[in-house]
Amino acid sequence: MMNKKIYTLLLVSMMLFSVHKSEAQRPNHYKSGGKVNIIFETDIGNDIDDALALDMLYKYLDIDRINLLGISINKDSPYSPKFIDIMNTWYGYPHIPIAMVKDGMEDTVPINFASRTYEHTNADGTKFKRQLANDHDFTESTRFYREVLANQKDGSVTIVSVGYLTNLARLLETKGDDISPLTGKQLISQKVKRLSVMGGNFNGINPQEYNIVQDIASAKKVFDEWPTAIIVSPFEVGNQILYPGATIEQNLAYTGTVPLVVAYKSYMDMTYDRPTWDLTSVLEAIEEGSHYFGYSKKGKVTITATGESLFEEGKRGKHRYLTVDEKQSQRIKDRFVELISSTKSQHQNTK
Questions:
Q1: End-to-end CA distance of the chain, in Å?
Q2: SS3 content of the chain, % helix, strand, coil (to 5)
């Protein structure tokens, strides 16, 4: 008969092996640790990838992977905050703060999916619900950043920027005030873990990427002076991963009218596939270490006077940019579809 002590040790070993095996069999995106504190910085309304990226953030909220500390808008458009308010409300997160640039870059696409979704009338004659009134006075973005960062733990915040860098450049310039005695740069150094930027182009083709050239001075300031690590998802990465438009109607037009579906259909004639520029920055920021992407060596991104983005390797550099091969591109696309096709938020909305 087996010794009782030996039997117990054997049983424990088998249990530990079983747990280890099940952990190893899980997809990589379930292995990372606690919640990620995210601030989303967007020029939403210009291209539909912003709306898809925003949808991803709600889905991460659904599975308790993030704290979405707020959404900051970096272009002057009255419809951008209204669209985000609709999305926040519909997905069941109506109290996520929305901040707005003041005297920022003008909207280059005034009639866009944001305005069309705001003006959309459902078949029953209703419009999308909103939490905030039309005349709501949104907090100016740099003040929003100072208020949020001052109340977070040191090194705990990840900023995902998928538009112009206007607000972040202005944050760098802020001085101590009634919120915090620290300057903007000091607050960033103390509270921000990393900055994830969709911008630039490092494949030698068309280095004047849209997000950079819309506010070259701000982009230059951020890449020259930002004190924490910056991970850049350049144009060429999202450009080679196309979100399959057919899944929008197949997987998202479940019950009732969905604002993301209205927005997607408003942006271009269906059915179309669209590059996933902004989605890549969100994915990398939240699922860091899941081996979706390749990374350049450390170095320094420099923005020229004409908006070109240049990269120079250097061991002391704080900047890296993402790369993808064919296998990674497919895996990333599958993850995007998995997240965006999730219907948990729809159940929240219909409670």
A1: 58
A2: 45, 15, 40
> What residues form DSSP beta bridges with 313?
299
Residue 80 above 70 pLDDT? yes
Q: Can you give the pTM of this predicted structure?
A: 0.88
Structure tokens at 286: 């939240």
For tokens 């899941």, the residue is 290
User: CA 161 to CA 74: how far, in whole Å?
Assistant: 9
pLDDT per residue as tens digits for the range 155-212:
999 999 999 999 999 999 999 999 999 999 999 999 999 999 999 999 888 889 999 9
Separation of alpha carbons 272 and 248, rounded Å: 10
For the beta carbon of residue 237, count every other beta carbon within 10 angstroms. Answer: 28
State the pLDDT confidence band at 4, using cuts at 50, 70 and 90: very low
Rounded to a whole number of angstroms, the CA Rg of the chain reads: 22
**197 to each of 35, 161, 270, 283, how far by Cα in Å?**
20, 5, 29, 12
- CA-wise closest residue to 202 among 324, 311, 325, 314: 311
